[in-house]
Amino acid sequence: MRLQNYWAAKGCAVMQPYDMEVGAGTFHPATTLRSLGATPWAAAYVQPSRRPTDGRYGDSPNRWQHYYQFQVIIKPSPPDLQELYLGSLEAIGIDMGVHDIRFVEDDWESPTLGAWGLGWEVWCDGMEVSQFTYFQQVGGHDCKPVSGELTYGLERLAMYVLGFDDGNEMPFNDPDAPIPLTYGDVFREAEAQYARWNFDVADTDTLLQHFKDAEAECARILAEPADDPKTGRRIVMAQPAYDQCIKASHLFNLLDARGVISVTERQAYIGRVRTLTVACADAFVQTAAGGYTPEPAA
Amino acid sequence: MTEQPSALNAQLDRQKATDMPDLLIELFSEEIPARMQGKAAEDLKKLVTNGLVEAGLTYASAGAFSTPRRLALSVEGLLAESPAVKEERKGPKVGAPEQAMAGFLRSTGLTEDQLEARDDKKGQVWFAVIDKPGRPAAEIVAEVLEHAVRNFPWPKSMRWGTGALRWVRPLHSILCILSDEAGAEVVDLNIDGIASGNTTQGHRFMAPDAFSVTSFEDYAVKLKRAKVVLDASERADHIWADATNQAFAQGMEVVEDRGLLAEVAGLVEWPVVLMGKIEEQFLDLPPEVLKTSMKEHQKFFSVRNPKTGRIEQYVTVANIETADQGATILAGNGRVLSARLADGAFFWENDLRIAKGDKMQPWIDALENVTFHNKLGSQKERIERIAALAREIAPAVGADPDLAEQAARVAKADLSSEMVYEFPELQGLMGRYYADAAGMPAEVGAACEEHYSPLGPSDDVPTAPVSVTVALADKIDLLTGFWAIDEKPTGSKDPFALRRAALGVIRLLLENDVEIGLKTLWKPSVVMLISQLKLSGDTSISEDLLSFFHDRLKVFLKDKGIRHDIIDACIAMEGSDDLNLLVKRAEALSEALKTDDGENLIQGFKRANNILSKEEEKDGVSYELDPDPKFAEGDEEKALFKALDTADGVIKPAMGQGDFATAMAAMAQLRGPIDAFFEATQVNDDNPIVRRNRLCLLHRIRVICGGVADLTKVDG
Questions:
Q1: Is the peptide bond before B454 cis (omega within 30 degrees of 0)?
Q2: What dotted CATH number matches B363-560?
Q3: Got the DSSP string for B151-193?
Q4: Hey, what long-range contacts does B625-632 have (CB within 8 A, 24 or more apart)?
Q5: In the predicted model, what is the mean pLDDT of residues A223-239?
Q6: A38 falls in which pLDDT band (50, 70, 90)?
């Protein structure tokens, strides 16, 4: 909440989580698609994220297959982004006078998004609390201008600020409330259930079929002409296509967790998802939000 | 902080001694990756000083420095301006066609009346004398620095904001001043909106305010006041001194790690050394696990208790002094470490259960699902080949075949363990721990750890026979496998590190005196590959692989001072797939050729060989009969007959015993008689019988020398 208020005060549009299963806040179209093209952009949002292979049946103190990221994306990256970021840490109660904050090299690459950037992981007293990235390429497109992306792992950050070693023990509401609830009370049961389903039960044939369906639908959407015959308007459907891409990516993660993808196949699947992302990125730059300007009528 | 003699102090001392202008440059950016800082400072120095010298600005000395946020360069004793130069250029002849004149005038920028006509050998020629006036240092510096920034060789660079400039991370400011006794002046330049100035900033948290500087000395002093130690080696020295002091005070010792020290020195501008204790419950983890986990994840130094030999504490280096003397920082780091080590302990206990209970079998079975290479089957299939091969070659290495096979079967089992999954660099070592825990013989555990060795030219070579056997089998299978599927290294591409593997085999064989032919060594491996994988390849890969080994051997021996041509002369001989034999022969030949006799013998041999070859070709016959001494005419010829008999009598038995040195020395003795023979005798005598006898004599020289090495391949 305080992070949201801070970034709202710094001029970011506070957005809601994207309503699909994603592996990280970066997948939100507010980051992937909006980092493309020249149109300025600034947004901040919480994104529940799912990483099936990280499931630990709710037993791990700091690993869950469903967790929360707080994401900030600003295009073009402002010159004082590091100071803004440090300000956000102060805002959530991290005192720069007693803590040791470090920017440690960490280059970011997402093969499925066809994206990479340079930046750091930010350490607070030896713990990684954020990822800080200057996007160089997304969906195979050079980022011009460059977006600055900040990703905070909310559970870890909360553990740090609240001083908990086990994230499951963190209070999720007011500890003095009539019904005090911890993070574990809220999520542990679901973690165990999803871990079992992700690792052992999910039907791989169905998942595979869904993957193929999403892949086909994405291609079909993008193959439609830009001009809508019904309204007569130019409507490039980049985002609906990108939804299919998100789906395919999550299905791939589930298949991976089920252990049915071999090392060599893995590369092939990643390549297939990337092909979709790149196609969506190509489409997005053909939209007004992506910086497309219609050619003046002759 | 104690004053240490350092590059920085030396730089300051030099500077005081001069009164020519000094240049100070600082490029201030967001955090530069630690691993790139040292080279970047050197690159800055090289680019700028080269540029200055090229433009005529010489200097007395230069020093480059780096911190996480800045690259700095101090150049002192610079010329205030580049010297004026007179350039003379020769043009066309006087009276040359108009076109030639016009072209010359254009290229020199002069008019005809500014040219001088001078006398030349072939008449009068136009000369242009161009005065290039000196340019002020500031102008040159600005150009050179801009060029350096725009062409900086970062391993990876990026753009930011709306700009097109590339730097390792966003570049924020450029400090660039020329200073002399009269004061300092800013060198004007502006690179994509970043204007030069005379200000910088101190430590990000402890002294963030901007301040201006007037010279390098002023800069270094003010930076230190602003909690920045400019010199990386000074930071490293401070860290090491403080860490060892703190450890010593508690009766401990810091485990040395130069790579880590350099990295940590690149992560801080103001190093603050803090020492903490590892929680008691983790102290029984293998020390390598503690060390690796702390180093890889946290960049901590390990601190050992010399009394127990265990790693019990750690040193972390913070970038800030705090009111609580680092208590909060240490507590936070301790929490992170405990969480990491809890993971480590979890892996260790799970692994030990499988090692003790199931003798690692589930791990070996799991390797069935791990593809080694899609054409070479699974890791498990590979292990079966290695095990069978190890059994075959064990006797030649002097190892027990049963133990060698057992060791080969478990040597890679740890690849399936949780610990190695987490820390791949612990492969082999964990294998030893787990083999020991499984109650296997010590030789097996040692082989698990050592069978990857040697990894490089300076890496230790295992000596225990079982380890040597498994190490050989592992590498031979790798090589024959990739040869069988025709994935050989080409040019700079060697994705499977096959050159390294071949060098490993070479060193294992040579340093352990294993006398076995390579073809014998890999024959079972090739047969297995073909049958196990149903490859269509045949045993012809053997010859090709052998010549690959010979190439690697040449590289290896070249470093030991043995010439290519000498190795070639020995490779041409029979049995050259036994590397020990081959190397002994090459060493002996190399020694023999260093003597005067040896060197000249080559001439004599080649002469004999050339004459013989020519006459044989001409006559269409081979002169292979034994020459008869009764047809020998002069003393020299008779002496040669005798010398050849003597040499033959020594060389044959010596070669039989592999005593190359004696054989080569005997061969070198032939130099005198052969030279004398050629001096005194005409081979192509008018008498056909004498001629034939002499040609047969030359043939004998060819045979005797040729039995030692193929001297035709030796240069000279």
A1: yes
A2: 1.10.3210
A3: T---SS-B--TT----BSS-EEEEEEEEEETTEEEEPP-EETT
A4: B625/B696, B626/B696, B626/B700, B627/B693, B627/B694, B627/B696, B627/B697, B627/B699, B627/B700, B628/B693, B631/B689, B631/B690, B631/B693, B632/B693
A5: 91
A6: confident
Which chain B residues are closer than 8 Å to A164 by Cβ?
none
What pTM was computed for the model? 0.76
DSSP lists the bridge partners of residue B211 as B200
Alpha helices in B250-400 (DSSP H): 258-265, 287-293, 327-358, 361-366, 379-397
Return the pLDDT at B2.
Answer: 43
Q: Which of B420, B322, B338, B340 is nearest to B379 (CA)?
A: B420
Question: Which top CATH class is B7-80+137-225?
Answer: alpha beta
SS3 B490: strand
Q: What is the pLDDT of residue B8?
A: 61
Is the domain B589-713 a CATH 3.40.30.10 member?
Answer: no
B307: its two tokens? 């009394």
Q: How distant, in Å, are the alpha carbons of A266, B362, B440, B524 from that of B377?
A: 18, 19, 28, 18
**Which of A61, A77, A119 is closest, CB to CB, to B161?**
A77
A120 touches chain B (CB under 8 A): yes
Which is the CATH superfamily of the domain at A2-197? Bira Bifunctional Protein; Domain 2 (3.30.930.10)
Window 292-351 of B: residues touching A by CB (8 A cutoff) are 298, 316, 318-320, 322-324, 326, 328-329, 331-333, 335-339
Residues B520 and B503: their CA atoms lie apart, in Å, by: 18
- Return the residue matching tokens 């001989």: B573
Q: Which of B156, B160, B206, B347 would best serve as a mutation to test chain A binding (most A beta carbons within 10 A)?
A: B160
B82 CA to chain A: closest CA distance, Å? Answer: 37
- Which ranges in B197-231 belong to alpha helices (H)? 216-225
Rounded-to-integer distance, Cα B413 and Cα B475, Å: 17
Select the residue of B163, B169, B320 nearest A118 (Cβ to Cβ): B169
Tens-digit pLDDT profile for residues A126-168: 988 999 999 999 999 999 999 999 999 899 888 888 888 888 9
Contact A103 B31 (CB under 8 A): yes
Strands B70-76 and A13-15: unpaired
A134 touches chain B (CB under 8 A): yes
Give me the count of residues in chain B: 716
Residues B181-240 pLDDT 10s:
888 999 999 999 999 999 999 999 999 999 999 999 999 999 999 999 999 999 999 999
Q: What is the pLDDT of residue B682?
A: 86
**In chain A, what are the domain boundaries?**
2-197, 203-284
- Parallel, antiparallel, or unpaired for β A13-15 and A41-50? parallel
Query: Tell me, what's the pLDDT at A169?
Result: 92
Indicate the pLDDT class of residue B4, thresholds 50, 70 and 90. very low
* Both tokens assigned to B146: 């801009």
Which two tokens mark B375?
């054409």
Whether domain A203-284 has CATH 3.40.50.300 = no
Which residues of chain A neighbour B335 with C-beta distances below 8 Å?
127, 165
* Residue type (1 letter), B423: F
Residues A189 and A58: beta-carbon distance below 8 Å: yes
Decide: A73 and A90 in contact? Cβ < 8 Å.
Answer: no
**CATH 3.30.70 segments of chain B:** 7-80+137-225
